[in-house]
Amino acid sequence: MVPEQLRYTAGHEWVATGDDGRVRVGITHYAQEALGDIVFLQLPEVGTVVAAGDVLGEVESTKSVSEIYAPVAGTVATVNDAAVDAPERVNADPYGAGWLLEIELLETGPAGPDALDGLLDAAGYRKLTDA
Amino acid sequence: MNSPSRRSPLHDRHAALGAKLAPFGGWEMPLEYAHGGVIAEHTAVREAVGVFDVSHMGKARVTGPGAVDFLNTCLVGDLDRVATGRAQYTMCCDQATGGVVDDFIAYRHSDDNVFLVPNAANAAELVCRLAAAAPPEVTVSDEHERHAILAVQGPASERVLDELGLPADHDYMSFVTAPYAGTDVLVCRTGYTGEHGYELIVPIEAAATVWDAVLAAGQPYGIRPCGLGARDTLRTEAGLPLHGQDLSLDITPVQAGYSWVVGWSKPTFWGHDALRAERAATPRRQLRGLLATARGIPRPHMPVLSAHQQVGQVTSGTFSPTLQVGIALALLDTAAGLSPGSEVAVDVRGRRLPMRVVKPPFVRPSAR
Question: What is the fold, at CATH topology level, of the domain defined by B6-58+145-237?
Answer without folding.
Answer: Gyrase A; domain 2 (3.30.1360)
